[in-house]
Hints:
Blueprint: E1 2-7, H1 12-21, E2 27-33, E3 57-58, E4 67-70, H2 76-83, E5 91-94, E6 107-109, H3 112-120, E7 124-126, H4 130-144, E8 152-158, H5 173-176, E9 181-182, H6 190-201, E10 209-215, E11 222-229, H7 234-244, E12 251-253, E13 268-275, E14 278-285, H8 293-304
GO molecular function: N-acetyl-gamma-glutamyl-phosphate reductase activity; NAD binding; NADP+ binding
InterPro entries: AGPR, AGPR_AS, AGPR_dimerisation_dom, AGPR_type-1, NAD(P)-bd_dom_sf, Semialdehyde_DH_NAD-bd
Protein name: N-acetyl-gamma-glutamyl-phosphate reductase
Amino acid sequence: MIKAGIIGGAGYTAGELIRILLNHPEAEIDFVYSTSQPGKPVSTIHQDLAGETEITFTDSINKDADVVFLCLGHGNSKKFLAENHFSENTKIIDLSTDFRMNGDHDFVYGLPEFFKSEILSAKNIANPGCFATAISLAILPLAKSGEIKSDWHVNAVTGATGAGTSLSDTTHFTWRDNNFSSYKSFGHQHLNEIGQSLKMLQPDFSSEVNFIPNRGNFSRGIHATAYTEYNGSLEDAKKLYSEVYSEAPFTHLVEDIHLKQVVNTNKCLLKLEKFGDKLLVTSVIDNLLKGASGQAVQNMNLIFGFPEDAGLKLKASYF
Length: 319
């Protein structure tokens, strides 16, 4: 049994990690660190955990924990690790953007479907972003086979939890309810990591990923559509994607697709369609699970040699 610590314990992703780890067969929660909530039961913030645990938030850390999850705001993980040092045997899994680019050589980019061999021998993991996960799983099979010859056009919608717990003008209920908007068009920060993965798998990739992110009026989930020119048939594409994901326990091709199939699960579901010379890929994930905490535990499982799906056989909330 390994001991896990969580830094930044009051946020959405930390709440999901606690929920998963409480039921993980090979891990136990050693501490949940929060400078804003020390001494309080975690169930006072993560109220779905009432009756599930007596763990309280703490403002101290165990430097010898086996694995530490960083659930901090973007830019704060590097600062935290500079000020707090863990054992050389401690694995770090960061859920922010801080270590996702290749210049941070101590961190492996944790997209298991494509970088599993690197993850298996990694000490530290940079967990992919939620949009990056949904989009990468939709488009990277063509990169792996060297078949991307033109631009990708991506439109994706995320739920309100994608913005985190901090309030802003666009996260208040009165603004979000019965509303829809785009933001950061063609310039979302997750494009950097998507482009990095594309170049790693298809070094001659020189096209664009034209990405329009949107805010939806639902709580959790990402629905992404991506299309590009493709010379093969629909059957060719399905065969390629099926082969790429043949050993991926959470990524599957389907014929019907919508968000309720994946909310509260660690799944990514993909639907392929062909329209003339265009291949359309629809991708759905839960932004807090496959897009964050679930994938982080998936990476933990790989690092420690546990079954990849340990603790992650979660059921969708269909109704």
